[in-house]
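Input sequence (349 aa), recorded before submission:
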Amino acid sequence: MYFELVFVFDRDDNGVRFGILKRDPVMIFYSSSRSPQAALRKQISYLKKGLIDPSLHYRSQDQSKAWNEVFQAHCPVLSDPSFTQIYQNLFSRFAQESRQKSHLIGLGCGTGIKEQWLARSMKRHGLPLHRFSAVDVSETLCKMSMKRVRPFSVQSPQAWVIDLEAVEELRKALDQGDQTERRIYTFFGLVPNLAPRTVLRILKSLLRPQDQLLISANLAPVRNETEAEEEKAVKRILPQYRNRETKEWLSLLFQEQGISRKVISSLKFEIEKERGLRSVVVRAEVIKDFEWELGAKKIQMKKGGRLTVFQSRRWTPLRFEGWMKRNGFNVKGVEMTTNREEAVWWVER
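Predicted structure, token format:
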């Protein structure tokens, strides 16, 4: 636990507004999934399959900073007003129907900007959050998120620094809290980078009946859902990935692992299709045999081998909504950007 200085506004008995500077206790819990041993086991498991564990791109302060630079430079939400508007619209609708004591849980919260929008909207409609929990693999991002949402929460925020794939540990921790609170989960920006089965396992493990979920997906901006149109649509959004900031962010992994550029090629950005779903895939090729040292383990990397460094799945609107419905989620609302590149859904179990 640590303390932050927070300036809080209140009114006296005569209705005069005044401010108080107080120490605000902030609780941060560290999951065993973030231990060096657990991280190594997971990294080795992924690497043996030719994959990079997605959470490894967000672990260090340098990576968190680089990711934020990608977000600032290329995230459409900051340059296209409709990206902001879809969240504001859905959050307003959601807040108008929320009349219970609520616990907002930001899964993979990142910087917390959208959770801040939601909390502000709820307060504007007369129902401030009771509690906020930031959940992310990055301690740095958890702290940023808590700081953003704190002014709109009745209680002090808390955070879990955890790998979301360790979902059972998170569920047990949440179940030890106040069971009278309605939980509101956010799941923003995660769907593109996780396999559908992983997304489903996380959500089904956490959501209880009547819990609410606000979930976004990056889309292939199709006008009609044909194969040809989908292929063209994904090509149009490729520059959002194939750029200097993204390359620098993803390359940090190799630098921090001590992997020389002499043995790994530069990153290559490709479009692939798997089980009907198109993705932007970033790969690197092993150009010289080497041993990747992971703790006491040494993984043999052979020349010509390919590593999937990053993958962003681009759903179509109908495919994503149909997938949620087939898996037991009731869709209560949806908002989509004018260019059809992103949508956010309000669903419940």
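Checked by second reader. The first strand starts at residue 2 and ends at 11.
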